[in-house]
Amino acid sequence: MASVWLRRCDWFMRVSHLYTGLFLVPWMSIYAVSAFCLNHRTWFADIAPKWEKVRETEFRPTSPLSHASEEQALAVLESIDLGGSPAMPSSDANQLTFYRACARGMYRIQWQRQSGHVLIEQQLPTTAYSYVNNLHFRSGYSHPLWPDLIWGVTVDGVTISTLLWVVSGIYLWARRPRKLLGGLCLVGGCALFAVLAVLLGR
Description:
By secondary structure, the chain is an alpha+beta fold. The chain has helices at residues 2-23, 25-39, 41-44, 69-79, 128-136, 146-174, 180-200; strands spanning 50-58, 86-91, 95-100, 107-112, 117-124. It has two domains: 15-43 and 133-200, no CATH class; 48-126.
């Protein structure tokens, strides 16, 4: 009975290790490349993005809006066909300013309440460096658009799969007849992590 359980466990660990890795190749590649870019940002951040005007339009609500800045920003986003969720809204008596995330570059939207004028700007130019980093930090379920929701679910899948890779990797190593080299790697990695975590926390 124990041998049957071990065979099933071996099969599950190998299959999950293999197929989740294959499915998540693009996501893990994005996180790996963007982490490298962040670690060496001086190599890649030669072109500083600037706010560039995308377009101008008008928004005059046909019904009274909520006094909450976020609700007003949502109404403006819908009127300009951007959708999504506003970020960091700030307002005074005359103007509402907020941002909307985008992998190609953050949008900044300014709405003049009295005139109805809407100015839409974006951080440009888009570079490979900025694109992969924007994808890296895209997370959560606060964005109502379906691509954002699927991305959030997949990020959870990446997290679970990473933990599964750790568990299955230790399991597959433990099942090997020769464990010395793997044991040295495991102990060495854990010891180095512990030392750095202590020193970086000082």
